[in-house]
Amino acid sequence: MKYHAIKLLNEKLYFSSKDVADVLHIKEASARVLCTRYVKSGLFVRLKKDFYLLREKWERLKLEELLTIANFLQVPSYISLMTALSFYEVTTQVQRGFFESVCIKRTAKYEVDSINFYFYKLKKELYFDFVKMDDIFIATKEKAFLDAMYLYSFGKYSFDLDSIDLSKLDVKKIDELLKNFPEKTIKLVKRKCRI
User: Mapping DSSP to helix (H, G, I), strand (E, B) and coil, where does residue 93 land?
Assistant: First the structure.
C-alpha cells in the first residue's frame, strides 16, 4: 500500500504533495490527488494549502511542535499573548485547543482538526522583542504581556488580567519596551499594573 511508503515522511514535521510524489515516484499532479483523498479518508491532516501531516503524527504532537506549526502557518509571526504567557508560566490560565501569535500581515484564524491558531496583526513598529528557541519564534514574556495589553487597549483582544502573575515579569524591561507603544496602551498599563 502507498500509505506504508508515505509513512517515511513521518521524519518531517509536515510535508507537501511534492514530498509525496518523490517518495512514491509519481507525478506531482497524481500526488496532489492522492493527498486530497487521504485528507478525506482521515489519513492526512491538512495544515494549509499543500501541506500535510499524517493523522497518527498529528495526534501525538508535543507542545513545541504545535508552536512550530503556528509559526509556519503565517510567516512572519511569533508566539505571543496568553499562549506565550502560559508557556512561561506567567498566567494561571491553561489554554486548550488554541494557540495565539502576532503577525504583521493580517489578522487570521486557521482551524486544523479542532485546534485553532489565531494571528493578531500588530503595527510593523511593534513587531520586535521575540527570540528563537529551537525552531520556535516566541515573544519574551514582557513583550507577550505588552502585546496583549496593546490589543486589549484598542478593544481587539480580551484576557483576564487577574490571571497574570506580575511578579514574574521584569518591570524595568516592561517600562523600557513600553516607550514604543501608543499613549493609550501606556496609560492602561500604568493604571492597571502600577508601573
Answer: coil
Q: Which residues of 7-16 are buried (b: 16+ CB within 10 A; e: fewer)?
A: eebeeebbbb
Prediction pTM value? 0.92
Do 187 and 140 fall within a single domain?
yes
Residue 142, all three cell numbers: 514582557
Per DSSP, the three-state class of 33 is helix
- CA atoms of 113 and 23, how far apart (whole Å): 25
- For residue range 60-72, list pLDDT tens digits in order: 999 999 999 999 9
- What is the rounded CA–CA span in Å between residue 85 and residue 40? 36
Name the β-bridge partners of 45.
53
Angstrom CA distances, 102 to 52, 63, 75, 84, 120, stand at 23, 18, 10, 11, 5
Over its C-alpha atoms, the chain yields an Rg (Å, rounded) of 20
Q: Which residues contact 29 (CB under 8 A, 6 or more apart)?
A: none
Nearest to 45 by CA among 10, 2, 97, 96: 10
Total structural domains in the chain? 2
Range of the domain at 132: 63-193
For β-strands 115-121 and 98-103, DSSP reports them as parallel
Cβ-contact 141, 168 below 8 angstroms:
yes
